[in-house]
Amino acid sequence: MAKQEALHRLEEMRQCVENVLSDLDYHIQRTKTIIQPETSEEYCAHGGTRCPYCGSDALEGGSVQIDAATAWQPITCVECGKKWNDIYTIAAYEPVT
To answer: Residues 75-90: pLDDT tens digits?
Structure first.
């Protein structure tokens, strides 16, 4: 019985270590992103749907400002607090009937 109990405890410990390593890997990846944020091209490639600094999708956008053929919107990441502007340019027009 003692041997089986010891094996069970070892299995629990192995599972705990795997969970800790998985969490650690997640945090290492997030830290790498914060240290070296995405480029503008990388940010645009996924549609600007996550923070270029921490990868979170918890973003808040301010009012869109427009000047000629360019518009911009201040964006704040709720998770890490970083701020930036999304820049929009005119791509086409569509007639309205």
So the answer is: 999 999 999 999 999 8
* Residue where the block lists tokens 């944020």: 37
- Six-digit token string for 49: 């749907």
Residue 65 pairs with which residues in a beta bridge?
Answer: 72
DSSP state of 74: E
* Cβ contact 77:51 at 8 Å: yes
* Residue 72 neighbours by CB distance under 10 Å: 16
Is there a contact between 59 and 84 (Cβ–Cβ < 8 Å)?
A: no
Euclidean distance between CA atoms 84 and 97, whole angstroms = 37
pTM across the whole model: 0.62
| Token digits of residue 93 | 């027009």
